[in-house]
Design goal:
5-stranded parallel sheet, alpha/beta, about 230 residues, elongated, Arc Repressor Mutant, subunit A, 4-stranded antiparallel sheet, Rossmann fold
């Protein structure tokens, strides 16, 4: 699972990132609202941990922008214990849960796990590209011939490419989807997983554009005509 941790207190940011990674998560970080907004627009996350007291762009403003863009990623807000007004405002603007500071890491982890397990029934939890469909809850990819249960890494890449079919994704962008911000640009992990996804989608469905990256070519739906 890939998380975005947004916190301006660097000691807390670094500490939480280390603990969350030890718990098995891939964690990107942002120390201010503007960098967070950039990351949210560029990458897909399974959950966002959002501090409200951010420089450059306040947390509540960022939260409002997330929801106005129809982004349904679960958001757990962090706020000072005595700021109950902010908690209420955050929930009204679309936060899924909140945690007051100071807090124990075990409670943060428990709340994250609960949100990640929470069932969703929105229509936008199904991605469809031509004859391909991806269930965002079960991580099942349905193609013309079969249903494939994807691994976490396969799912992350498939979801990104199916969100914007025909868009060319640079290797760095795809690599960032399955690793943290300190990824190794020389790694061949993307080539390995692209090869695996081609077994599901079909070899011709994912194109390699030399020097540019990869793209998923949207197939025709069964009911489409020439």
């Amino acid at each position: 699972m890939k998380l975005l941790l947004i916190e301006d207190e660097l000691w807390l940011l670094n500490n939480l990132q280390s603990q969350l990674e030890q718990a098995g998560f891939i964690v990107d970080t942002a120390p201010d609202g503007e960098q967070a907004a950039y990351l949210i627009n560029e990458y897909k996350y399974d959950l966002i941990v959002l501090d409200l007291g951010l420089p450059k762009k306040p947390g509540l403003v960022l939260l409002e922008e997330i929801r106005e863009s129809k982004n349904a990623t679960p958001v757990l807000i962090l706020t000072a214990r005595n700021s109950w007004q902010e908690r209420v405002e955050g929930l009204k603007k679309g936060a899924d849960d909140y945690l007051g500071k100071p807090f124990h890491f075990e409670e943060l982890l428990a709340r994250i796990e609960v949100l990640l397990k929470r069932p969703r029934t929105r229509v936008d939890d199904i991605l469809q590209v031509g004859s391909f469909t991806l269930d965002l809850n079960t991580r099942e990819l349905t193609t013309d011939n079969a249903v494939h249960k994807l691994t976490k890494t396969e799912f992350g890449l498939a979801r990104l490419m199916m969100s914007e079919p025909n868009k060319v994704f640079a290797k760095d962008t795809l690599l960032q989807q399955v690793t943290d911000q300190n990824y190794d640009r020389e790694s061949n992990v993307i080539e390995v997983y692209i090869s695996k996804l081609r077994q599901y989608f079909g070899k011709s469905s994912i194109e390699t554009l030399r020097g540019q990256g990869y793209r998923l070519v949207a197939p025709k739906s069964k009911g489409d005509t020439e």
